[in-house]
Each structure stands twice: as C-alpha cells, then as structure tokens.
Amino acid sequence: LTASIFRPTLLLCWLAAPGPTQPESLFHSRDHSDLEPSPLRQAQPIADLHAAQRFLSRYGWSGAQAAWGPSPEGPPETPKGTSLAQAVRRFQRANALPASGELDAATLAAMNRPRCGVPDTRPPPPAAPRVPPSPLPRVRPRRSPWMLPSLSLSRRGWQPRGFTDGGAAQAFSKRTLSWRLLGEALSSQLSAAEQRRIVALAFRMWSEVTPLDFREDLAAPGAAVDIKLGFGRGRHLGCPRAFDGSGQEFAHAWRLGDIHFDDDEHFTPPTSDMGISLLKVAVHEIGHVLGLPHTYRTGSIMQPNYTPQEPVFELDWADRKAIQKLYGSCEGTFDTAFDWIRKERNQYGEVMVRFSTYFFRNSWYWLYENRNNRTRYGDPIQILVGWHGIPAHSIDAFVHIWTWRRDERYFFKGNQYWRYDSDKDQAFTEDEQGKSYPKLISEGFPGIPSPLDTAFYDRRKKLIYFFKESLVFAFDVNRNRVLDSYPKKMTEVFPAVTPQDHPFRNVDSAYHSYAHNSVFLLKGNAYWKVVNDKDKQKNSWLPTNGLFPKKFISEKWFDVCDVHISTLNM
Ligand SMILES: [Ca+2]
Ligand SMILES: [Ca+2]
Ligand SMILES: [Zn+2]
Ligand SMILES: [Zn+2]
User: Which positions bear Phosphotyrosine (predicted)?
Assistant: First the structure.
C-alpha cells in the first residue's frame, strides 16, 4: 500500500523537474577559470527540541515505522514525551554517550556531525510472546524499521527477498552492474575526470571483495543503468528528499538505484586530508545500494557518520564478510599459484628467507597476504605491470628449483619456458650460463611434454613434478632427466585418501605453500591438500602424497576476486 501511494508522487517529481535544479552555468574562459563557485548554504544547526525531534524522526530513531516519510508534503512524525526520551536514549547508546534521554550538549553535537541521509537501523526488539499461529486470514507483516535500511522509495519497487536479521539484504541478483555519473549532475568542486575516477575506484573496491563486477555505462538509456550517481544542492535531481546545505547530511542512497551527493559539502579526492573524501562517501553509499545497512562498529565503512580520512582506507574484515554474506565469496579457477622465495638480510646481517604468495588468472594476478588472510589491497593487477618479460596472460606453470647450488625460477607456457631474474625483477634474455630464453621445454627438460598443466618442485627429493592430463612426470634436477619409472598415473603418485575423491586429470595448479607447509592441487574452484610429514606423524595410515578430500578454494584463500577489465589499471 505504501509503495502504491508514493510511486505516483515520485513520478510527478521526475516529470516536474527532469533536468538539473541549478540555473545554467555560463563560461567565458575555455578552462572555466571564470567560474565563481556559488556561496555555500549552511545547514541549520540542530540546537533546539524541534530540530532534534526532526533529526530523530528523519534518521529512524523514533516512531514504530521508518520514521522519515519520503513524501515531501507531510510533516515528519515527531516523537514527544516518553517516546522522545526513549528515542534520545537509543541514539545516545549507539553513539557511546550516557543514555540520559536528555538533549544535552554532547547529544546535540553528535546530531550535528556530518552523516549519511539513509536512516539508521535499530536492533530488533525482543521477540513477542509466542501466540499460536492462525492459518487465516493471512496478514502481511508490517515492515519494521530495521528492515528498511535504505530510503524505502524505489522506482524499481521493493525487493524483500534475502533479508537477514541485521537489515542487510541482497539487492541485485545479477553479477555485473552498470553505473553512470550523471553528466548533468557533476560536482562543481572536482574535475569531471576526477569524479569519474573516484567513483570507478569506489565500485572497484567492492568488486575486489565480492563476485560483483561494475561497468561504467555512458551509452544505455538512463532507465537501463543500474546505479546512477549525481551531485545536487538543496532540492536536487527530482529527488523527494532535499539536501540541507553545508554540514550534516552529505549524501543519500536509494535502495536499488540512485546515489546523490550534497554538493554544498566540501568533497575532496582521496589524497587530501581536508573536507569529505568523495571516495569514502561513494564506497559507503554503494554499500547501501548493494543492501548493507548502517552499523556503529568502529572501523566499518557503513558507520552513519563521516570519520575523517585515515592514511589507509580499505574495506575491513567485517565489512567484507557482511557483503559476502549477501553475494557470496569469490570463486574461480587459477592458471597457477606459487610462493615466491626471496633471501634478504635483516638488520643484524642474518639471511632471512621471505616468501610472497601469488595467484595468477588470465592476464592478472593477486598477491596473497597469508597473515591477514586476504589479498593485498588494490589487487588484482596486470601480469604485464608486475612481471617483466614473461607472457602477459595464461601462464601454465611456475617452478622454483632450489638446491645448495641452484636458485632458479621458471615460468612455463605452451612449449616454452622463461627464467626469471629475481634481483632485476625481469625475465632473463640470457642467464649467467649463457643460456638464452625463452627456451623449448623439450630442450631444457628432456622427456617433459608440453603444454603443461602445472608443476611444483619438491625440495627434499630434488624433484620437479610435472603434471599433464592424468600423468605425472618426476624430473630429477641434478641428473636433468625423468625418473625411470615415470610417467605414472596421478592417482598412483598422489592417491586419494577417500576413494574417488580426486581431481584425476588436468589440475590447474600444484601449489607448494610455505605458509601451510603443504602442497595443494587446485582444479576449478576446489583444492586437494597433499598429505605432508606432519599429517603422517599424526596418522601413520595416511598414504604418502595422499590427497585429502576436496575443499573449496574460497574457504581457504579469501577475497581473490576479479574486477571489471576497465578498472584493472587503477
Ligand atoms: Ca549537507
Ligand atoms: Ca596451470
Ligand atoms: Zn549511510
Ligand atoms: Zn536525493
């Protein structure tokens, strides 16, 4: 019923104000240097009872329903008396203030802090006493405020599926979403290119931690674009909710669609330590559009109030898990995965062995931070950018031969291989022995077929295991030849611990992890861990090199997520 009343109202708004709400800007200089920014309008400070009532109502702290009515005509529902004191206490508790219920100076100061326009969510009240369910008539449950994290007025309708107790809900079922920064609603404070770059980066940050992909769409009709963003001042963009001038509300988001920024705010690029970071606000509002409600957890990007810029701004562990609860974690196959070993001297001159974990897919790669259990901030990046002189896409395998005499790293693709110079960070064209690269696999590793599925080096046995379809070739690096009894069936060299639970053929990657002190066979979105010495000490019945049952890669290595190809270079 609510939706059917409001939909025509909004439609009228759009018809009445189809274009920008500001008068036309006229420029005389080509570089716009004659553009005089219009004076900022200040938001009315919240200083009295009436303004505080309006605040509590507008941001969901009072009333039984989502208190702020999106219709611009009606007066807001204002709490009075006991209900006002209750609303104030709730607000105070969430803001870590003494819950006095009084509108004291600290409470008013908290209300005046810059904040997002989306109402806050309240924890659900205790469960009602259980009454026996009556089968008829069916009564639609009233929508309670914690189920309305975003502004409830949506031109594309209400999508109640997938709600969880915390108020989070999956907003989109497709995996690639289009977005557009409205050309008629750009900020007057940053260049158009900078605004687009910042918004693209904000979308990329969500795609780095979810299976979602975001694509800027400048061509499709407006109605076909999933997420539209624009800046406005006061009454803006036909939106039923006016902005309040400089201060307080800096942006708002409509569920399933639009994001508006208050252009009376001082928006700044991520490099600035002044004003309000457009990147941070954009990431927050995109979070709403995707279905996340506010949270008062310190460190979360979904806090309703603006927190000043920190040197590192990233989606933290809990924010990642919250969005992954809605959209799932990232799945996918890898071309190869390996640990890159470096010897470094520490401050006492001792040689330290350090390693970094890399996952390669197509033409990009991720560095994995085992200690933090996530990919490096800002990954993936292009192989072309991070690795010099090796093929730019679809690497088959990587091997690090490491003996007392040798310390050599090789990449394999097709029927060739490349040796990589760790010190110079580029592939050798010619190494210290006068060998030139790339070389044919059949020349450097006699008896080894190509193209390979994968390979790994067993340091103790001084063997490389090369994998091709269902076969394994054990290659002696000292004698430079395949061991006599090889090739063998993969099921023979790496037998299944649980019968039939085995990749059988065509593994993507055999990954020797130093962090886990184990080898993993990766295929598709699954992995099999190879039995190691420690496993055998605990359970002597385990077969040597046995494969533990299959598990999902995404349950062991988190946030290895693709981003849209257009943002790969950001
Ligand atoms: Ca404002
Ligand atoms: Ca491979
Ligand atoms: Zn918000
Ligand atoms: Zn708006």
Answer: 437
For tokens 């954009």, name the residue. 282
- Per DSSP bridges, beta strands 481-482 and 488-489 are unpaired
Containing structural domain, residue 104: 46-112
- What are the residues whose beta carbons fall under 8 Å from the beta carbon of 462, sequence distance 6 or more? 403, 476, 477, 478
DSSP 188: S
302 appears as a binding residue in the annotation? yes
Residue 489 forms part of a structural domain: yes
Is 388 known as a binding-site position? no
Residues 278 and 215 in one domain: yes
Tell me whether residue 285 is one of the annotated catalytic residues.
yes
Starting from the CA of residue 114, give the closest ligand: 1
Query: Which of 309, 328, 347 marks a domain boundary?
Result: 328
Q: Which ligand is nearest to the CA of 360?
A: 2
The predicted structure's pLDDT at residue 15: 35
Q: Say which DSSP state 533 is in.
A: H
Report strand pairing: 381-382 vs 364-369. Answer: antiparallel
Angle between helices 317-327 and 278-290 (to 10 degrees): 30
Contact 462, 517 (CB under 8 A): no
**Which tops the pLDDT comparison, 78 or 552?**
552
The reported pLDDT for the residue numbered 309 is: 66
Last residue of a domain, one of 112, 132, 158: 112
**Interval between CA 364 and ligand 2 midpoint (Å):** 14
Whether the CA torsion 150, 155, 156, 158 is positive or negative: it is: positive
282 Cα to the center of ligand 3, angstroms: 10
For position 38, what pLDDT does the model report? 58
Percent of the chain with pLDDT over 70: 81
Question: What distance in angstroms lies between residue 303's CA and the mean position of ligand 3's atoms?
Answer: 7
Instruction: Tell which phi-psi region holds residue 329, choosing left (phi > 0), alpha (psi between -120 and 50) or beta.
Output: beta
User: What is the whole-number distance in angstroms between the Cα of residue 164 and the centre of ligand 3?
Assistant: 18
Which residues have CB atoms below 5 A from the ion given as ligand 1?
43, 244, 248-249, 262
The per-residue pLDDT for range 80-128, each reduced to its tens digit, is 677 889 999 999 999 999 999 999 999 999 999 999 999 986 544 444 3
Is 284 labelled as part of a ligand binding site? yes
User: Which span out of 194-203, 306-315, 351-360, 556-565 was modeled with the highest average pLDDT?
Assistant: 194-203
Could you tell me the distance, in angstroms and rounded to a whole number, from the CA of residue 263 to the centre of ligand 1?
A: 8
294 is in an annotated binding site: yes
Q: Indicate whether 322 and 348 sit together in one domain.
A: no
Nearest to 473 by CA among 495, 453, 459: 453
Q: Are residues 561 and 476 in the same domain?
A: yes
Query: Which pLDDT belongs to residue 80?
Result: 64
Structure tokens at 319: 């924010």
> Any binding-site annotation on 31?
no
Mean pLDDT of the chain: 83
